[in-house]
Write a structure and sequence with these properties.
alpha/beta; 14 helices; 12% strand; globular
């Protein structure tokens, strides 16, 4: 079965970027959101993303006209679902919202349609519980910003129809992504569990007065972050020597932060409405919307530069 018609449910932070990926590669994409303002914002963000890609990769590498012609935005759920070969749910990380949406789309789906969730935390078994399409329901976890970050984590169940995961992997590779299929279903998957472990220790260091947020970020960016861009934890351990890592982990593990709750620092900021870039303040301040957009654009340019360097190294 060809996956030519794709529906993205949710036009927020991740949804519009996921839609852009497939539209850039010639597939028909419909992005659904019940809020017209969200659809308008998503359309504008896609255009900004395409301009950025064009500026940094050249006109031949990106065809904005093709992408826009392949993208449709709608607040009509039925119009988005009907005829879709692949439906990707990208709504907020709220189980009630997700289950409610699944119950709405179930009668609208093609019998052969594949459904996936872009959840970043929920286990697939939880999401698929009692869903009539559970045997063709998977997780495709993209990373923000979706058009730039190559990784997509894929999770399936024991009851998943054979071959479906392979179809998704083939599609994602054709769109320039790097899919990783997990062997087991687990909340948070691979990358977010690793990121959560780092964030727990970063917050512990900050709460303990060891260093300021900027110092911790600098230590990460100018040290491990550079190495992790070209090598994973096991590759780095092999290069460093497992005898060394045996001593490092044995000495440090008992001294690391071991909180079983969200860090108090983060909970306090959320309670005050300081959510990061989206509200103009978090661990740092980001100014007005125009300043926030410039800062986000600068981040994306840096990512593009890093990706171009990695691509060049891979060809060398």
């Amino acid at each position: 079965m060809s996956l030519n018609n794709i529906a993205i449910l949710g036009a927020g932070t991740m949804g519009h970027g996921i839609g852009q990926i497939f539209a850039q590669h010639g597939l028909a994409v419909t992005v659904y959101d019940p809020h017209p303002a969200a659809l308008q914002a998503a359309s504008e963000k896609v255009l900004r993303n395409l301009r950025l890609l064009q500026e940094n990769q050249g006109g031949e590498a990106v065809n904005p006209g093709l992408t826009v012609s392949n993208l449709m935005f709608t607040s009509d759920l039925s119009a988005a679902i009907t005829g879709a070969d692949l439906v990707i749910e990208a709504v907020p990380e709220n189980l009630t919202i997700k289950w409610s949406l699944y119950s709405q789309i179930a009668p609208m789906l093609k019998p052969t349609a594949i459904v996936t969730s872009n959840t970043s935390t929920f286990a697939l078994e939880t999401l698929a519980f009692e869903q009539p399409f559970a045997d063709r329901f998977l997780i495709t976890h993209f990373f923000n910003p979706a058009p730039l970050i190559p990784l997509v984590e894929i999770v399936q169940l024991d009851i998943t129809i054979p071959g479906i995961a392979g179809q998704l992997i083939e599609l994602l590779r054709a769109c320039g992504k790097v899919p990783v299929l997990l062997k087991k279903d687990i909340a948070g998957f691979i990358a977010n569990r690793l990121q959560a472990a780092v964030m727990r220790e970063a917050c512990y260091l900050l709460e303990s007065g060891i260093a300021e947020a900027a110092q911790i970020d600098t230590a990460m960016k100018e040290g491990p972050g550079l190495r992790w861009a070209i090598g994973g934890p096991f590759e780095i351990a092999d290069y460093g020597g497992l005898d060394v890592w045996e001593k490092v982990t044995g000495h440090l593990f008992p001294q690391l932060g071991a909180s079983q709750e969200a860090p108090e620092l983060i909970r306090e900021k959320v309670a005050k409405g300081e959510l990061g870039v989206k509200t103009g303040a978090g661990f740092y301040t980001y100014g007005n919307p125009a300043q926030q957009e410039r800062q986000s654009g600068e981040r994306d340019r840096k990512l593009l530069g890093l990706l171009q360097v990695k691509a060049g190294n891979n060809k060398a």
